[in-house]
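User: I'm preparing a small set of examples for a lab meeting where we compare how different chains pack in three dimensions. I only have the primary sequence for this one, and I'd like the structure in token form so I can line it up with the others. Please keep the answer compact; I'll paste it straight into my notes.
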Amino acid sequence: MFTSGMTGKPKGAIIEHLCIATLRCMQPRMFMNSNSCVLQFSSHDWDVAVIETLLTLRVGGCICIPSDEERISNLAQATNQMTVNCAVLTPTVAQLVRPEDFTHLETLVVGGEALSLADLATWHDRVRFIQSYGPAECSIASAVSEPLTLSSNPRTIGQPCGCVAWTVHRDNHHLLGTIQKQLLRSLLSLRPGCRISDKGIYPRGCIKLEI
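Assistant: Understood. Below is the structure token output for the 211-residue chain.
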């Protein structure tokens, strides 16, 4: 999977098929079940497309695929026609539409970008508004929040999902306690020996992240 990530430098990450096992953890966090009609909005180059397709199939839901034209020019009308009740979008895309434009939407999961207080104010009382976080190297989502409220901190990424997380020192990942880097260990991530940082190589299932 290719990404510029938080460094802005293009890179590739080899993701094991084993990471798909974490879909079981995401299912209740994202309120997905056999009644879910999930919008397949993301490019297949992005790992979120795995949530939209494989997680939906796992729970027995319906994958709702708009045309390219509908994605660009008439997303709300297309989702209403397909009775979409769950969507995963970036905050930027969510800002291009209005809650009142959606007839059936019940759950909106946002990720991939920073969330703002304005986003919270717009969506918190109209849908289950959930924030997810997951770097490409630790696909698909390594943290998922509870439904957010107006008083929620938009920087809250939620609880670990399918992994164990530590908050560690920015310059030394062996030291715990400062909110500058996050260390994740799980079966979510890279093959053994993959280089994931300019500062070193970490063991399988271990990844150092900026937050």
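A couple of notes for your slides: The chain has a mean pLDDT of 81. The chain has one domain: 2-162.

User: Perfect, thanks.
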